[in-house]
Design a protein that fits this description.
Layout (H helix, E strand, L loop, with lengths): L5 E9 L4 H12 L4 E5 L3 E3 L9 E10 L3 H14 L14 E7 L4 E3 L2 E3 L8 H10 L12 H7 L5 E3 L14
Antiparallel strand pairs: 1-4, 1-5, 2-4, 3-4, 3-8, 6-7
Amino acid sequence: MTARTTDCVIGLGANLGERRRTLERAVHALDGLGRRIALSSLYETRPLGPPQPDFLNAAVRLETELSALDLLKRLKSLERGLGRTQAERWGPRVIDLDLLFVVGQSLNEPDLVVPHPGLAERAFALAPLLDVLPEAADPRSGEPYSRTLERLSRAGIREIEGTSSGAWLGPRE
């Protein structure tokens, strides 16, 4: 990894349409932004917010030459390209791509907060993050996220069988 490289974890979620296929397309699109280091298992999770279908969630560890802010802009563009439209906060969506974590960085800028706000309260984001970066720790407190996840309820989070180590990913179209 060079000094200009960003080592990060991107969370993926979808609860509308062909959820799995959309996540597969998103992972392949992320490959165009850098080098995929790891892909998590696939999880089915209950949603936060208003009544809506369950989500499929995953995470990608990516090494990219983009800055965190430039990466966020590209993630929003990928979401639009995959069919996401503005909707109610925490409502159903075709795709959600979140910059969850950047190795060695803590950012608090007007358009970007890393680690992702609420990460430490969201088992549905921490479980896939830890699949791809088991040693991840909160950069402010130093607490390992594995310890944080142990304190959270995992009710409503189910790893889908046969998907460990990203084996769920289908071929690029």
